[in-house]
Amino acid sequence: GFKIWDSSLDLGGFLIHHSIGRCDDDEIRSIFCSHLKEESLRVLDIGCGQGLVALSATYGMSSLRSQLESHCVISYTLQDYDMEVLSKATVSNVRSNLPLMRDTTMNNFKFFQVKWKTLSQLLLREVPKERRDPLSNVRLEAFEILVGSDILFSPDSCDDIASLLIVNALLYYSHKNEIARLDSQRLLSPIAFIGTKKHYFGTNGSVQYFLHRLHTRSKEFRQYALSVFSLPENFELRPFSKTYWTSPEKDRIILSIAFHVSQE
């Protein structure tokens, strides 16, 4: 948590580059612009560590919002399992960098010490109310943009992140008024950007395994589309991925995950 890994630097630079650039055919910038045209934008940094990726996203989004003269309200949730990292590093890093961010204050940030599985449960509203735990009263809304670096390091982490992205997408689409049409060409998709190694030797996480579990879990979670989120019975969620950047050594990439929706 206290160490900054290479993938954090990769992803942070990637987010800033595609936010402050002015290239008209920049696909990533176009996605960001589309979300910033909405009334609000929620960003989640998964396994935030010292907050470098979240700060990069904040700098990029605040600059792009200013260019667009947008009034979109942006909120950032920084999640990590290590409370010591959050309290001793993350919060102070965010506070120290606020002068670089346009129209952004500490009120735009939430810091969340929780496991990834519990985060999915919160999105599913599955934390038991009788638990004497502050989390039992937390209600999360879907995130439009999710970022994370070096979070696919083990088979278990790949499973947890796949589940989190799918549950978030189900919640996102359940709140869209246009869901009756389910026109995937018109609906924005929540999108995740992950800075990662292709394979984590020693802990056995990999992009290949993560993508396999993402597609498998999207089918397994179909019951929630009906029972929890009240989506149409023939609702189908299809994840798709794209590699946007590869390190010169070809062992690290920036991976994006978005979703198509349809009625079978």
TrEMBL record:
One of its GO terms (biological process) is methylation. Its main location: cytoplasm. It comes from the Eukaryota. Its EC number is 2.1.1.85. PANTHER family: HEPATOCELLULAR CARCINOMA-ASSOCIATED ANTIGEN, HISTIDINE PROTEIN METHYLTRANSFERASE 1 HOMOLOG. Keywords: Cytoplasm, Methyltransferase, Nucleus, S-adenosyl-L-methionine, Transferase. This is protein-histidine N-methyltransferase. One of its GO terms (cellular component) is nucleus. Belongs to the methyltransferase superfamily. METTL18 family. It is found in: Cytoplasm; Nucleus. One of its GO terms (molecular function) is protein-L-histidine N-tele-methyltransferase activity. It is an enzyme of class 2 (transferase).
